[in-house]
Amino acid sequence: MTAAIETEDLSRRFGARLAVDGVTMTVPERAVYGFLGRNGAGKTTTLKMVLGLLRPTSGAVRVRGLDVARQRLAAARQIGALLEAHGFYGNLTGRENLSLTATLLGLGASEVERVLEVVEMRRDGHRKVGGYSLGMRQRLGLARAMLGAPPVLLLDEPTNGLDPDGIADMRRFLKSLPERTGATVLLSSHLLGEIEQVASHVGVVDAGRLVLEGELARLKADLAPELILRTGDDTRAVTLLLAKGRSPVAAETGLTVALRPGEDPDQAAAAITRLLVEGGAPVFAIGPRERSLEDIYRRVANSRQQQAEAA
Ligand SMILES: Nc1ncnc2c1ncn2[C@@H]1O[C@H](COP(=O)(O)OP(=O)(O)OP(=O)(O)O)[C@@H](O)[C@H]1O
Ligand SMILES: [Mg+2]
Fold it and tell me: Which intervals hold domain ABC transporter (predicted)?
């Protein structure tokens, strides 16, 4: 099956700086692909090359099989995008701004109303964009990206400037989009928690390099399982666990204990509970810890460090 987006050894240099360094990524059709990286990691630069707005120094991009260098317009027509700089006209209303794009795409007024409705902006559509809040501009940007229902949505930090309700709405919306419309979503973020809540797939970019890519569920499952527990006496609990050869680690919400290879989580929880209770440390809660993207990130960093030390 053709991927929604594929890059092949994609690089972009700005002077001496290699902003994107040999990125080969695959965004499957109908995925919500979270493109994760710190500030300056190269997310926006990559997205601009996917859109054909920035020419790669080397490498290639294909959007639904269309080569962006050779079939730029056909490829661009597959994508609706929301980038950092919206480029709206402040002295025009939200509706007028969308109408400009709709006209370029050969779409009518009803499509403008449809996308305004989707982002719940119909009531503010008559106001000038110059008077919009950051969150309203962001919603309008999403509405514009969706004009004509393109098969691929490319969203650079889409929850920027949204309030908690707006973020929750956006997440729900993006997450359900592939199932409802068959679309593919590529969204960038520097927030692990953000990506974790919406994405089916993840790509992690660090200093221009794609250091990890895959299905989120599989990446999580690959990590060694852990239990998390809350006790009435952590100091005592730690001593008891250490004496049994376990290595508890203090976490924000309690103590975490890694399972031994092949150990059953339920059996381990029962054994640890018995150990602590008999040893005088009451156990308030114990259970498997949900692995987060933070764990994945840390593991990548660790394995790279080990590689560097071995080299
Ligand atoms: N037009 C440009 N000229 C020179 N350097 C640039 C240009 N655009 C980006 N860079 C540099 O390329 C690197 C990657 O930038 P990019 O904007 O792609 O990062 P990002 O991952 O989107 O970061 P953020 O989370 O802050 O948006 C940075 O070091 C940045 O300074
Ligand atoms: Mg950026």
Answer: 5-232
CA dist., res. 142 & res. 148, Å (int): 12
Centre of ligand 1 to C-alpha 20, Å, is 9
Q: How far, in Å, is the centroid of ligand 2 from the Cα of 210?
A: 15
* Ligand 1: residue whose CA is nearest its atom 31: 40
Q: Which of 132, 99, 128, 127 is nearest to 113 (CA)?
A: 99
Predicted local confidence at residue 192, as pLDDT = 86
Angle between helix 134-146 and 109-118 (nearest 10): 130
How do beta strands 209-215 and 201-206 pair?
A: antiparallel
How far does residue 41's CA lie from ligand 1's centre (Å)? 7
- Which residue from 12, 14, 36 has its CB within 8 A of the most atoms of ligand 1, so it is best to mutate? 14
The Cβ of residue 56 has, within 10 Å, a number of other Cβ atoms equal to 24
For 199-256, what is each residue's pLDDT tens digit?
999 999 999 999 999 999 888 877 778 999 999 999 999 999 999 999 999 988 899 9
- The CATH number of 224-288 is which of 3.90.1150.10, 3.40.50.20, 1.10.1740.10, 3.30.70.100? 3.30.70.100
Residue nearest to atom 24 of ligand 1 (CA): 39
The radius of gyration of the chain from alpha carbons, rounded to an integer in Å, stands at 24
Helix (H) or strand (E) holding 21: strand 17-23
Joined together, the tokens standing for residue 172 give 């729900």
Largest Cα separation within the chain, whole Å, is: 74
Q: What is the DSSP letter of 124?
A: G
Distance 8 CA to ligand 1 centre (A): 20
Contact 36, 196 (CB under 8 A): no
Domain layout of the chain by residue ranges: 5-214, 224-288
